[in-house]
Amino acid sequence: MDYSKSGAEKLFFVFIGLSLCCICLLCFNSKEKDNSSSSRAAGGKVKFKVAMILPGTKSDLSWNQSCFLGLERIRKELGAETAFTEDTTPENAYILIAKYAAAGFDLVIAAGSEFSNAAYTAAASFPRTSFMIVGPCGGNNDNLGSVSFRDGEMVFLAGALAGLKTASGKVALISYNPDQEHSGGTEMGLLFERGANFVKPGTKTSYAQMRNPSGREEGIVLTRRLIEEGNDILALDTRAEGLQIHAFAGGKGCKTIGWIMDQRQISPGTVISSCLEYCDAIILEGARLARLGRWEGKNYKFGLFEQAQDLAPFCGSLSAEQEESIKDIKRYIVESRFLR
User: Fold this and answer.
1) What Å distances lie between residue 167 and 83, 110, 176, 191, 254, CA to CA?
2) Alpha carbon separation from 287 to 146, 183, 230 (Å, rounded)
């Protein structure tokens, strides 16, 4: 028997066996990676992660609640993983935004233009994360953009509604805008005046701004002054900071117009209607773009034409003729591309 040949054959088969083992191991590792990828794809790729910071509480029947509804729609309709923080201030906004970006969230939403500075800083630090500001903001032409309303449309419409309902011929707009300085001669005040005089020429209008974000007493002081001046209709573009004004004004025989959400339940006999702003709808639209990789660093504006704004049901507070007048004005705003 030739033992040397047998030894060579043994070495040959050992070599072949080791080679096959290596190939099997490589194939196993490759298959494991493929399974990992395919399981992510089966679950809708890597889960879309969205976080939001709110300036107040998520159940305030105003700005924060409407924005939070947008996050809930993102969770339900886009299947996203979501997180949020309430009662955020401009001072701690960057820390929170950066925390979410560092944790791998794909989209971080800052619900308020008072957070613009923090969002801009974070966008520069986390270029692969998308950032959305809810409110007017130009964006950075890259990963930070905004969604906002054509506010002037609803201010004009609120002025028209106030003009239709006033008995004294004097109406007022109270606003709370956290990032802009306003005075009686600003664009919003002028648009409110235009709306009131559009339906009732000669109507006198006043404009006042709440400047303290937690100044509920400030709102009462402003309201008392405006009522003493003879204003019998008050439009309240004040976020949650002005909700207590409805009941106070009603106690003085004054009627009000709410803002953002339907606020009739706060003071049913006082609130004529509310200027509805569907924050949830515009936030969801922005999130869809971000998920598709089409989010741009610009301001996306929405209004009556996009059905992102409207008036709440009047529930008998207007006559049939007055309701038709409001419908005509809404058509005029949409068809004339008012403020677009």
Assistant:
1) 48, 41, 26, 20, 10
2) 11, 34, 45
Q: Give the model's confidence band at 117: pLDDT under 50 very low, under 70 low, under 90 confident, else very high.
A: very high
Which pair of tokens denotes residue 227?
Answer: 């009522």
Q: Please give the model's pTM, rounded to 2 decimal places.
A: 0.84
Residue whose token pair is 């109270």: 174
Rounded CA separation 25/173 (Å): 74
pLDDT in tens, 200-253: 999 999 999 887 655 678 889 999 999 999 999 999 998 887 899 999 999 999
d(CA 131, CA 133): 7
- Which of 220, 151, 225, 232 is CA-nearest to residue 192? 151
Q: Is residue 124 scored above 50 in pLDDT?
A: yes
Look at residue 129 and tell me whether its pLDDT is greater than 80.
yes
Which residue, among 137, 228, 222, has the nearest Cα to 184 in the 3D structure?
222
**How far apart are the C-alpha atoms of 83 and 100, rounded to whole Å?**
9
Q: What is the pLDDT of residue 181?
A: 46
Q: What is the pLDDT of residue 187?
A: 87
Query: Phi then psi for 78, rounded to 5 degrees?
Result: -105, -5
State the virtual CA torsion across 114, 115, 117, 120 in degrees, nearest 10. Answer: -140
Residue range 242-262, pLDDT digits in tens: 899 999 999 999 999 999 999
Q: How far apart are CA 20 and CA 43, in angstroms?
A: 35
Residues 6+ apart with CB under 8 A from 126: 98, 101, 102, 143
Distance from C-alpha of 263 to C-alpha of 271, rounded to nearest angstrom: 7
Domains assigned to the chain = 49-149+280-302 (3.40.50.2300), 151-269+305-335 (3.40.50.2300)
β-pair type (233-237, 204-209): unpaired
Quote the tokens at residue 244: 């207590």
Q: What is the pLDDT of residues 52-77, one digit of tens each?
A: 999 999 999 999 999 999 999 999 99
